[in-house]
Each structure stands twice: as structure tokens, then as C-alpha cells.
Amino acid sequence: MTKPFVPTHPPRGTGPVATWRGFFGERARTSVHGWSERMFELPYYQREVLRFRIHVLLDPPLIEHVVLTNQANYLKPGLAKTLLGPVIGTGLLTADGTLWREQRKIVAASFSPAAVEKVRPVFGAASRTAVAEWRSGEVRDVAVDATRATMLIIAETLFSADPRLTSDEALCHIAAALDGISEPRLQALLGLPMVPLTPRARRGAVGQRYLRATLNQLVDERLAAGAGGDDFLDTLITALRAKFAPEEARRLAIDNAATFYLAGHETTSNALAWTLYLLSEQPHWQDRLAAEAQGALGSAEWGRAPVTTLLPQLHTVLQESLRLYPPAPRFDRQAAGEDLLPNGEAVRPGDIVSIWPWLLHRSRRLWDQPDVFDPDRFAPDRPKPGRYQYLPFGAGPRICVGAQFATVEALTILAHWLAEWRFVATGRRVEVTGLVTMRPKDGLRLRVERRS
Ligand code: HEM
């Protein structure tokens, strides 16, 4: 019997956290920092932050009500639109109502299981490119390798590998753009002008301008060439032009190019990094998965059967990793009208409802030993967790449109890497950081050793 492994998580306090702490110090940098123990037990919690009343939903029936049953009343929050608007405009992630529905219909086909199967060879090739320069025995930041691999994959699968999206310069700008997105949130909350005040916010603004300008250029070039190709961007432009007036179609093409470029790589790269961290601490799991991956990659079924079937143990580990470190640790909605939650709490127009996979996935009411790494909880012979209890990809009609893409991509990359390489912890403490997505603080430095 091996000792239960409790992977890293931020310290927890005993009492409620003061609101101001959300704007200064570690909690302002790390959204999952400083939650009190109580929050991992409660089904519901209410707090006021500046002029907003926030309902934190920690019980599956409450979540089902908001994301499914009465979802028409719950929109993407105004604050998120203010912060993300300069980068992703009114693309799929931030749009509501009819504009959202039309865009979802347009992009759904590009992310269907059949479409994802078609791009699996790209995932394999990117996995091999990423390790080409690795030297056995060296210590590397594998979080950076994961980001590069997922970024190349998005650039290749969605934008036919345009070099303006894959250069080192692009990589730096995009990382800064993402990092700077939530920096001016106090200004946004107070309704003040969104002037970048901190160095991080200024770097973010430069990165965001670079991304928008590059995608503007890309879309205009595609439009000038007739957008007759069959990659994601050309398909998107053609479908948008069939539905919207030319100028709106052009703007939505740029908004969605930015949306998919940003939403489509950072989350998956964080999932990869957290999985490698967990495995570096659990060598016996790593050896099991290496054997499974070697068998799958060498079989005639690779490339034909679904990766989830060929890599059942790796799939349980990925699911457990997404439970412990959901790359999107929270997502919110804002009430359009009045409502009554199933627990009897009244919701007023403008209230925020906040859904926290980070808290929900570690709730002591819902999980057995929630802080322990135990991939077997996802084994096929065990009962599946409830639909609204485990939501790394969200739930309801707005569930992540890239969930299948991300799962197949992550499993493919991990299979290639684990089959050939051993990832060894260096003894350095790993900590969590991030406001919008959750990643290892200061990267993930691991020793990589070639398996003989
Ligand atoms: C492990 C990887 C990923 C995770 C954990 C993740 C997580 C999520 C979550 C939680 C949502 C729902 C947010 C909400 O309801 O407010 C979401 C939405 C979305 N995701 Fe992902 N995502 C991942 C990968 C991807 C990929 C690979 C793509 C695209 C290539 C993508 C594109 C999107 C888009 C466009 C939406 C908005 C969908 C809509 O509102 O209709 N994501 N994602």
C-alpha cells in the first residue's frame, strides 16, 4: 500500500478572506490562494465585492440551474467583457444570446470528434518536434516546452502554421497579453479608465496590440485572397460572411481568431505541465504510463482507434490532473434578471454567480480525500463523478467547444513524451499561480532522462 500523495496547493486560512486582499499581494496574483478551509465544505457562499453581490455556487444542483436550466438569465459578466474585449472582442467566449448562438453553430463543425481525428497527426508531429532538442540528463522548464508545443499545434491546425503566430517574438507577446489581461481589474470594477498602470499591465497591453494587429493583417490577407482554403480561419471567414454584413464578419473573424488562439493553447499547456508535475512526484505511475504509451504507439491501432481507448490509464491520470489543477479555476456569469436559486437564495439583476472548479473539485462534501492524487477514482469500473461536480471544461450549452480537441491533444503529447522520456523532480518546490488560468509559478523545471 503506497502512502497517499497530496500534491502542492496554496495554504488555507481559517476564516473568511477580506475583500481588499483580492487586489493586493499573493491573492491578487493567484486566484486560488488564501481560500479558507470552510470553502471546501460549504454548498454555497455569498459575498459583496465593491458594488457587486457574488454568489459562489459549490453544489451541483445550483450549478446545473445556472449553466443549464435557467442559462438564458445568466450572461458573460460585464467585467470579463471589459477586460477581454480589447483582445477578443465579441468572439465566441464573450458573446451572448443570438450572436453567441450563431458563432457557436459556425465553429462547432471544426471541433467535432471527426474534425479532431483529422488533425491527430499534427499533435504527434508537434510532440516529436518539441523533444528534438532535449538532452538526456538536463534540467528543463517543461512548462515552456508544453506551451511551445500547444502553440505550434493551434497555429498549424487553425491558421496553417502562419510564422507570425509561431515566432519567439509572438510567443513572448502572447504570454504577456495573457498575463496582463486581469491586471486592470480593480479599475474595471470601479468603472475607471482602463489605463495600464503596472509594468505587467503595460507589457500586456503591448502584447495585446501585437496580437490584434497580426490577426488583423492575417484576416485581411485571407479576405483579399478570397478565403477559399479549408483551414479553420478560411472556413470561419466564409461562414461569417454568409451570415453577417461584410464589416461585422471581418471583425468577428478577427475576434474569433484571437479567441481561439488564446483559449486554445494556454489551458492545454497548463494541463500538460500539471500532469507532468504530478507524474514527476509519482515515478511508479510514470513507469506504468510509459509502458502503456509504448504499447499504444507501437500498435497497428494507433491513428485508428480513439486515444482514450488506447491509453485508458493515461486518460484517468489526465482527468485526475484536471480535477486537482483545473486550468480554468473559475468562470462567472452575471444575472440579467431576477431569479431564485434552488437553495432559496434570491438573485438580483447584475449579481455575479461564480463557479469554481478549484473549490468544487476539492470539496470534502463531494469527494473522498479530495486533496489526494488518485487517478483510480476515474477508472472505468468506478461510478462517474456527477455532471455538475466535475467541470474542468465547464458544462451546459457553453461547455468548452475545444474539450475533445484538448483531450486528444494532451493524451497524444503525453503518450509521445512519456514513452521516451522520464521526468524527474529536482526537489524544487512547485507552487500555483495565475488569475485566469492556473500554472506552476516560475515554470516547471524537471530533469528529463531518455528511457533506454
Ligand atoms: C485543457 C484544456 C482546456 C480547458 C481546461 C478549457 C476550459 C474551458 C472552460 C471551463 C470553458 C467554459 C467557460 C464558461 O463557461 O464560462 C471553456 C470555454 C471555451 N473554450 Fe476551452 N478549455 C480548454 C481547451 C480549449 C481549446 C483547445 C480550445 C480551442 C481550440 C478552447 C476554446 C474554448 C472556447 C472558444 C470557449 C467558449 C465556448 C462558448 O462560450 O461557447 N478551449 N473552456
Automatic annotation (TrEMBL):
Keywords: Heme, Iron, Metal-binding, Monooxygenase, Oxidoreductase
Family note: Belongs to the cytochrome P450 family.
SUPFAM superfamilies: Cytochrome P450 (SSF48264)
Organism domain of life: Bacteria
Originating organism: Sphingomonas arvum
Record's keyword annotation contains Heme: yes
A Pfam family matched in the record: p450
Protein name (record): Cytochrome P450
Keyword check for Secreted: no
